[in-house]
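Input chain follows. Return structure tokens only.
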Amino acid sequence: MTQAVLGIIGGSGLYNIQGLENPRWQAVDSPWGAPSDEILFAEIDGLPVRFLPRHGRGHRLSPTGIDYRANIDAMKRAGVTDLVSVSACGSFREELAPGTFVLVDQFIDRTFAREKSFFGNGLVAHVSMADPVSPLLVSHVEKAVQHEGIAYRRGGTYLVMEGPQFSSRAESTLYRSWGCDVIGMTNMPEAKLAREAELTYAVVAMVTDYDCWHDEHGHVDVASVIKVMHENAEKAQRLVVRLAKDFPRQHEACPIGSDRALDVALITAPEARDPALVAKLNVVAGRVLGQG
């Protein structure tokens, strides 16, 4: 069996956890570009854990400026088998108040200025995104949330917008009418790329505000969002520690096949594949290309 390595992509508050064992920041090069930052290699209760600041330390990168392909590729090069995304979001539901953690299971991708696939001309692949997150990994996260007494909801649709501006009131009202539950700027194309890289993936969307649809809460502003983010960070730290302590030490097969997503995805004939692209895919798709 494969040793489990837990990956966390999220904000800076997650990397100040007390009691990390053998922490060290290490650069991981990627043929896809520059990852957001070095990766923090550490252990929690003996479990290998890898932390990547999505926006870079100090929050240098905008949602559009993140190289999502480089981030996912670097995390896989760091040995990650199971990846948990932790991100701030706005809420479209009265009951999903600021401070609530939503374990989302669906996405609507409204981004338009980002590279969204490792594959393309020279090696075409189509992976299923019908179920974007791994239910078994989500269950482990849910148990950790419950253990820590954090208000949460399992299930929900996350509308991913391009940003960096927040929504107009018309947009916010439209997305609510679509049945969306939360809104943010970072989980696409991250979820799509994690699937292409055969990483099991789960999302913890931490509500910071009500977007701008809520008449009693006014518009979104950075100051109020940051205040709630600091409060959420402490809870997220506790969640990560509990998740790692209880996490299986051997990687569990994903019940929906996330970790074997490329088995039936490649469509380009072997003799027609671009050698340069194949070489770049040596880690992401090495298992099915005979390179890993």
